[in-house]
Amino acid sequence: MKKKEKVFMFGGLILSLLLSPGCALFLVGAGVAGGVAISEDEIEGLMEKKFDRVWTAAREVVIKEGFIKLEDRAHGTMEGEVRKSEVKISVAELTEKTVRLRVKARKVYRVVPDLDLANELYNKILRKL
Question: What average pLDDT does range 37-56 have in this prediction?
């Protein structure tokens, strides 16, 4: 991605933050590597990677940190448990070279958001790539 495109994307993100007063949207992580919290329990990020590579990395991280309960590769979704929190991961192929990764985590009977865990898992998946 060219520097100009990164600046444009970052500017658009900041603008969307300013225009979303009732939304719990904020930046998480550092620089381009970090994701965006799109809710109290979910991190999302776009990356220029192939679906298969991101799916495999996400699967390896969940297995290492906990276990997978359900996975549907065709739809790009998996559910698991990590440190007694329910984790949901979504990998969506937006273009041939662009993938959206979402990581959601909830603890205490799936009621309490666990944004810290979602962010941690998201960043571990990025490091695997």
Answer: 93
